[in-house]
Write a structure and sequence with these properties.
The protein is of the alpha+beta class and 160 residues long. Helix content is 38%, strand content 12%. It folds into two domains: 1-48 and 75-110, Alpha-Beta Plaits; 112-160, no CATH class. The chain has helices spanning 5-20, 77-96, 116-128, 148-159; strands spanning 24-31, 36-42, 48-49, 70-71.
């Protein structure tokens, strides 16, 4: 699939997520014509910002000691997605000269991956998604295809 300029913005900012959030790892993802799929892992380890030093009075007397590390709060998936949508919408609207125009729908679909089997199945689904676009219920051309909704519903049902 060849990405348009908007698709490139969507892809490039997806790859920036883990640079912005130090405890986020990104796995498989795919940019589709009107949506994207991706696996986001929020790890326990996250960046710490440490401020250490001593404060002295004008007469040289020690007033304090070591300041405890300041920890960046662990981001939620909602915060990560909100950041991503905001950044991409801003750039897409600049490119398209459509300031303030909504780019993304308000919600998103999330699924907690609880097993290796589920992870592998979702990875495969993401990698195969472009090949199955003709059956995707998000594809406007397949709205009338009788198997499209059933295929997608069965996939998510099998993960439970």
């Amino acid at each position: 699939m060849e990405l348009s300029k908007v698709g490139q913005i969507v892809r490039d900012y997806w790859l920036e997520i883990s640079r912005h959030f130090g405890n986020v790892q990104l796995y498989e993802f795919v940019v589709m014509p009107n949506h994207l799929h991706g696996i986001v892992v929020i790890t326990a380890n996250h960046n710490e910002f440490t401020c250490r030093g001593e404060v002295t009075s004008p007469v040289g007397r020690e007033m304090g000691g070591e300041t405890p590390p300041l920890q960046k709060p662990k981001p939620t998936l909602g915060k990560i997605v909100a950041y991503y949508k905001y950044q991409t919408a801003k750039l897409i609207n600049q490119f398209c000269r459509t300031p303030g125009l909504p780019v993304w729908q308000r919600n998103y679909y999330e699924h907690v991956i609880r097993s290796e089997k589920s992870l592998n199945k979702i990875r495969q689904y993401i990698m195969d998604n472009p090949l199955n676009w003709h059956l995707d219920i998000e594809n406007p051309a397949t709205l009338s295809h009788p198997d499209a909704r059933r295929v997608k519903e069965n996939f998510w049902r099998e993960l439970a």
